Amino acid sequence: METVIVYGSCYGTAKIYAETLAEQMKCKVLPYDKVKETDGYETIIYVGGLYAGGVRGMAKTVKKISTVKCKRFVVITVGLADPDDEKNVKNIRKAALRQIPKPLADRTEFYHLRGGIDYEKLSFKHRMMMKMLYEQVKKQPVGEQDADTRAMIETYGQKVSFVDLACLDNIVKKLEG
């Protein structure tokens, strides 16, 4: 069974996970904007950074996936918030499923990893968006803040990395098992 890993990364953490996963699984890895077609692959693993309520590049990628030829679609999200927070995971999956056609969504597997952020590397546009969002959410009462909001408030303006490549070991076992 042929497998390919496709990734969407703006600042590098999803790319790090995707390349490491490809090395462990001994398969091809491509950025989403280099994918021409996916017909030769029965398993497609998409590793994508979470940005503005979506998974970077996934919507463009799934348009190229044959729902007949793709037998297994795996989505691995990379974000700042804790992937063990059930409410956070529910919100991520709900947003991701809006990007995936129904026939493919019915057989999509999800995994969630923590990424990182370096405000100095953010584009001007992203810095301004983050500043506006930060100003807005820091006014929320603590009891109303979700995991994403708390993570953003705690890390605002900093360089932080929660990348843990050891988390890939369990994913590899499940994918190859």
Automatic annotation (TrEMBL):
Pfam families tied to this protein: Flavodoxin_5
Q: Which domain of life is it from?
A: Bacteria
Entry-linked InterPro entries: Flavodoxin_dom (IPR026816), Flavoprotein-like_sf (IPR029039), Protoporphyrinogen_IX_DH (IPR052200)
**Per the database record, which ranges form the Flavodoxin domain?**
4-139
SUPFAM superfamilies noted in UniProt: Flavoproteins
Please give the biological process terms from Gene Ontology that the record holds. heme biosynthetic process
Recorded GO molecular functions are:
FMN binding; menaquinone-dependent protoporphyrinogen oxidase activity
- PANTHER family in the record, alphabetically? PROTOPORPHYRINOGEN IX DEHYDROGENASE [MENAQUINONE], PROTOPORPHYRINOGEN IX DEHYDROGENASE [QUINONE]
Question: What name appears for this protein in its UniProt entry?
Answer: Flavodoxin domain-containing protein
Source species: Candidatus Mediterraneibacter faecipullorum
